[in-house]
Please model this.
Amino acid sequence: MDKKTKRLLMDIVGEENFTDKLIDLISYSKDASEHRQRPDAAVWATSTEKVSAILKLANEERFPVIARGAGTSLAGLTVPERGGVVLDLGRMNRIIEINIKDRLAIVQPGVVYATLERALTPDGFFFPPDPASGKVCTLGGNVATNAGGIKGAKYGTTKDYVLALEVVVPDGRILRTGSKCMKTSSGYDLTKLFVGSEGTLGVITEITLKINPKPPLTSTAMATFEDLEDAGRAVSEIMHSGILPSALEVVDQQTLIAINQNTDLDLPEVEAVLVAETDGHTREETEFQLDKIIDIFKQNNAASIKQADTKEEVEALWTARKAAYPVMAQINNNLYVEDLSVPMSKVPDMLKVISDIARKYNLKIPTVGHAGDGNLHPCISIDGTNPDEVERMHQASAELFEKVIYFGGTLTGEHGIGLAKASFMGMEHGEVAMDVMRSVKQLFDPNNILNPGKMALEV
Amino acid sequence: MNIVQLKKLSYDEVAKCNKCGFCLPSCPTYLVNKSEAYSPRGRNAITRFAIENSLDLNADTEKAIFTCLGCGACTEVCLSSVRTKDLIFQNRECQVDEGFYPRVAERLAKTLEESRNISDDDQKDRSEWQELIKDLPESSFEKEHADIIFFVGCVASFFPMVQKIPANMAKILQRGGVDFTILGGDEWCCGFPLVGAGMPEKLEELKEHNLKKVSDVGAGTVVFTCPSCLHTWKHLYETDVKLMHSSQLIAELLKDGRIELKKDINAVATYHDPCDLGRNTGVYEEPRELIRAVPGLEFLELPMNRRFSICCGGGGNVEMTDPELSAQIAQMKLDSIRDVGAEMVITGCQQCVRTMTTRARRQKIDLEVKDLTELVVEAMG
Model:
């Protein structure tokens, strides 16, 4: 990037919001994935008008622009693969409006998930997706990734809550999509087109979210299963029993072993542990739901079932699930969290495949997941400084993707495609679907300036 | 330390960083700047790229590496428990060797070598704070032999705003009938600022001197009102002598009935966990026991407390190297105190008292900032 272009960028955002210092560029060269590439410069945007001016310049000068929130992507969504300018939206972090009467919140993209949660709590409301990185990740990133989390089975993911967006498209025009209404049948659903678009179609500058009243009470139970298939059947039966648990999580044997080797929690090293949570407005309501779930656990040969009453007991039941990532992150120096989703009935088959693949490639792949929506996180733990292990990790991932597609699943439940899974897009989506996606990209971004190299959108 | 040595020392640790970014909201300098290079993840990237020879240390890396507060909050929320603070301090040693470090660090080292205290004052004046005490024993508090040494620390000795801390501590020890002494002009800086300045090797001489004084006095215990002195002694002095924070000793006196807290203090108060006392030394409960023992005081916790406490802005020499950044972090702290509805903040560290008091005065914020010793003296009546 030449000096003149940098000067023009500086004129738009102000010197204090521009950097081409190496220390900043190396920070922006990475996210939580293994991918690395330095941008030529980075800017902090402070208003929609500035984003518009930046894109207009980029479109004229043909340099890439990569929008970035907190950079927590696990799949390289924010890595500037072709260099260019990282557009950091972290300083556009104002909650514009919380409107309880209309059940919506309007925010700038840099607002952190947890900040909105704190702001909604006094009114008894919440924005349900609850991603694991909620204390860090930004809502702009949530929308661009279509982020999900632990509450997916009952409450869905980000896409179910985005009502309207303000988006700057590559020629600098400012587009408003959707409506503040709870329902609309008016025109193409442009809003949904941008949800999960990974910054490849436009830069989101304002988000209108539907918010939910938060049920104040929860009940929790944990069950252990000697046989993985029993656990899988229990999940499937729960999910068609008419009860919708607010969380239904699975922890596999490898994870339990890893936790026991690294802590003194002394968990039973069974084939699977399930943790279920129900929510509601009265104790009767939450327990009625939980009793049904416990019945299903019993019918499916649960080896043990524990129910929690006090806050401490609830925390104890969640220990296995919550300790999983910290423990896995410490087994080795690198942890690659995959994000497969399969139809719910295929969860046990997929867990079996994961453990077979771990053996085949001589890798540790403990797995946890949101069983209630079929979303599994095999966590490949490797020594990232050992090229041989890195190579085996890649081979194992590729085989996991093949199997997932074979089971009718999807490459990613909530992390997105980015760079990590771009080369597998064709495996999941047919030629026609890929062709249409590329046409959409071409329509919005004919010069391919927005986050190029992601999602296999280039012909 | 050169890059090769840094690589040997740091590579395994810095390679553990998963770059997940979970550290970002725990880092005060990131919260203020919203700039990755000022975050734990960003600083670890600097170290990693430097030891992989794809980044030369320069004035920019100096700025990023020397603005870390050394508060350690990032490690608490890190899934891999990366010891980022240690990595930063090791990196600082390398920055120093390559000539990229703040000039104040050099001045500091020179001052300590010549004056043996951080404020470049005459060591004779170390006990100036005793003038605040009305019924001072004739021989002052300096004795040849005692069970306990009260190690006052440079800041509380020389900075008028916080000289009341040792004065109050001495009053409490007197009231509790404790056989104690201070080292007066023979107390040398513990060396803590040198670690933050990237010059830990210069600490040795100070350490040897201070340890010799302890054996001369024949004390079995050293008590500190300064958490950073305590932390330095505990982690770098390799001594068998019992080391305690003032709050721990005072809590013992209270438990044994040697002091009483009987005077009502009618206020709504919160407690700020100093980084070097809480997170970095593990003392969380004794300060709270003391606060709860004060009649009339209503106690509210800050939302980020104990392990997750957010630094006041006074850590890691940042107050010297980037006063504006330090002040903005102090403001964030004061905002969180206001949000919880407290009119008084109690802490156990002279540096925290200074940072918060200075900011509150400058911004005309009506907030009482007290060290635990002051609270205890008031409540003793």
User: Anything to note?
Assistant: Residues 141 and 170 of chain B are 8 Å apart (CA to CA). Chain B has 18 helices and eight strands.
